Predict the 3D structure of the following.
Amino acid sequence: MGLSLVQSRTLVGLQAPPVTVEVHLANGLPSFTLVGLADTEVKEARERVRSALQNAGLEFPHNKRVTVNLAPADLPKDSGRFDLPIALGLLAASGQVDASRLAGHVFAGELSLSGELRPVRGALAMSLAVAASTPHERLVLPLASAQEAALVPGATVYGARHLLDVVRQFTPAPVDALAADSADNDGGGWQRVQPRAADGVEHHPDLADVKGQAGAKRALEIAAAGGHSVLMLGPPGSGKSMLAQRFAGLLPPMSTQEALESAAIASLAGSFDLRRWALRPTASPHHTSSAVALVGGGSPPRPGEISMAHNGVLFLDEFPEYQRTALEALREPLESGRISISRAARRADFPARFQLLAAMNPCPCGFRGSVVRLCRCTPDQVTRYQGKLSGPLLDRIDLHVEVPAVAAEELLHAPAGESSAAVRQRVAAARDRALARQGCANQALQGREIDAQARADADALRFLQTAATRLGWSGRSTHRALKVARTIADLAASDAVTTVHVAEAIQNRRGLQAPH
């Protein structure tokens, strides 16, 4: 009889709690039992592990009663990440590897039938959890996943391509891991993976390509500087999509913490690309997307588009055409920057601090107020169309910007506008002022922080109060206008918010009013 313990990690949302893989070999009728609230793909590990051990030339205990327990028993486990720790547990219990030398290591990896190691989801989340709770432990992963995990500062990550590469390090005869690393000249074997920078550089379309639209460009600059959300309202062909495609190129560079958060979510969804490390994500789901696709869900809960756009941009074109339930689900994340998905058996929290960039036509035909074509919509049709957007949702969007049609003469003969690089310099300077003053972007200010950091003079506050009363604004709308005014002041390198800054903020919130 033999008993072995191997450490691993599972995923519950963005958390990666520890799992102990307990393997027991006993005399009796040959069997292989796997317990511990394992999902279907985990239970299928029995056949993958059996074939991988045999094809790798290792011995599978056919004449034993094998029991594998994934502890704690009440924690859900999914995916094939437990193949590698189960295989090592079998080998340790049968004496083929030194069980004592497995201590201090955390293993995860899916096995092919030949023993090759395949990448797993959530490698970055596992590395963050290990580095935070047990930084002395080594994380052993398939090589592709190890390159993700090594991005975490302070993490000790080893990568391998095959089961035998891992087994060699724990055979009863001592093996010097560093010597084994250097012995593999063909790039195989057990390797200590070092963090490396992204291979590519993202190139956004230049804002200079957009002719005219000075007001919309200014609104996007304000939004980028303060982290504000924007709703663009204009007829078809006025340039809303062109502006949205260039918005990410105006945003300041990501911090290391922001890059790790965004990369961890992408890793959890299985879409992480090392070439996009530290590049702000942009999500643009189709208007037929469901509420679950936008905010996340499923069993186990997976992140949605709003979490995939964390620290980046969520662009929703044809805004009123989305399902009402999908749009209303955006209200809480826009306010809190997080989304909590609750199911009967479990609950998962995902970060969702994104910049919403929405675009819509003013009416069903799209040409209301246009000088290019005559609008055919009745007032009742226009009201019903704009009424698809609820007042509480519009209340949470900071800037409502009109994007009028550009005349043909201006479109064909106007010179190129200001480049994205020039605007990005001003945005970065304004964002740095806000971070130095309050430690966060202006959009993230809450409660009494707004009054303390806005530093508005008496005339500016009086002007804002008068405008809010006449326009029928809610308290949220008034505070959001004040935060936008603070960003405008930062762009002007002004310590105080004046009447001029408030007036521009008010002007940028009158494109579409919440229906009453």
Remarks:
- The radius of gyration is 28 Å.
- The longest strand covers residues 18-26.
